[in-house]
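Severity: low
Component: inverse-folding endpoint
Summary: output formatting inconsistent between runs
Steps to reproduce: submit the following structure tokens with default settings.
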């Protein structure tokens, strides 16, 4: 049984062996929550806010050392939302509600599930490459991206399981794997370039589909998948909106560059080029969506009408993101893609 005397003797012996609590006084020198430096000089991989070390090698060859390159307000709050909303494809999806479906409907579900498995792989793989290249001083951004990678990995898992759950299996992937989420996302060399293409355009289009998932769901399992993926995807889109909002305020000299990324994303969204928009015109996935929305291969025309309304919804929500991020001037000055503007006006 431990006694006060025993504990006292223990600490005395520990001090004799080199145990030292003098580091506690250093807490007064480390101010929690202080403003992050505009330019990071962290060359030793130390955690943001920790005490600098002068006697260790410099090994952090971080590409992104300037705050405006990666920053966004409220990412800590968003990260807390990430971690409190985690779910499991094994325990939170009622897989037992999946019943046999007509062959054409099952094939369409599997084709769409294959696309989402592919797109979510890219949406986790590419942001993951940027995490280790950011200075540890910008740990809020790192945490948000790590949480996104976790979400996207779960989406890949759940859509793969859906493709296999009812005997259909994985179908054909779209050809432009590296461009799957809008523009040349896979080739992005700068974080703002990545975020504009991925979070604002690519994942925004997917988010609209997830929000309308019950229109193409045929059982409670599929409904649950789309609902849970939608809440996750909304956070990923929020990363991009918050970042562009910060850039608009603190790096206005880069606005034209960002408009260039948006030009490219809009062109692909309007034409369906690259296949990154599952609801795009004349794409592999749009055919599957028409079958699901219409209720079968013999009702594709009805499904195409619903699909047109979904495209209008995508554009409307994209314009809302532009407004929230401070880039809606392109809607009014003629910069926005004319086809998207026409679709928006038709939905008004």
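Observed output (run 2 of 3):
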């Amino acid at each position: 049984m431990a006694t006060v005397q025993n504990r006292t003797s223990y600490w005395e012996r520990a001090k004799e062996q080199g145990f030292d609590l003098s580091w506690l006084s250093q807490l007064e020198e480390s101010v929690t929550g202080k403003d992050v430096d505009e330019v990071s000089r962290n060359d030793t991989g130390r955690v943001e806010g920790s005490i600098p070390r002068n006697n260790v090698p410099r090994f952090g060859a971080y590409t992104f050392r300037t705050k405006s390159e990666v920053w966004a307000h409220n990412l800590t709050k968003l990260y807390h939302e990430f971690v409190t909303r985690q779910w499991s494809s094994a325990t939170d999806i009622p897989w037992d509600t999946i019943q046999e479906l007509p062959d054409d409907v099952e094939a369409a579900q599997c084709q769409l599930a294959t696309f989402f498995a592919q797109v979510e792989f890219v949406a986790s793989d590419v942001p993951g490459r940027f995490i280790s290249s950011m200075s540890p001083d910008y740990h809020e951004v790192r945490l948000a991206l790590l949480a996104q990678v976790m979400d996207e990995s779960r989406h890949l898992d759940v859509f793969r399981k859906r493709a296999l759950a009812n005997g259909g299996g994985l179908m054909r992937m779209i050809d432009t794997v590296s461009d799957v989420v809008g523009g040349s996302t896979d080739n992005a060399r700068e974080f703002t370039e990545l975020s504009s293409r991925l979070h604002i355009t690519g994942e925004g289009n997917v988010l609209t589909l997830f929000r309308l998932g019950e229109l193409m769901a045929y059982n409670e399992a599929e409904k649950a998948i789309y609902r849970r993926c939608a809440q996750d995807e909304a956070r990923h889109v929020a990363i991009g909106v918050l970042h562009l909002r910060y850039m608009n305020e603190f790096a206005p000299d880069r606005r034209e560059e960002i408009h260039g990324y948006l030009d490219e994303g809009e062109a692909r969204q309007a034409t369906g080029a690259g296949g990154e928009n599952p609801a795009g015109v004349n794409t592999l996935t749009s055919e599957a969506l028409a079958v699901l929305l219409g209720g079968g291969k013999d009702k594709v025309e009805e499904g195409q009408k619903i699909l047109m309304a979904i495209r209008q919804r995508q554009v409307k929500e994209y314009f809302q993101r532009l407004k929230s991020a401070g880039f809606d001037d392109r809607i009014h000055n003629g910069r926005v893609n004319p086809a998207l503007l026409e679709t928006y006006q038709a939905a008004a």
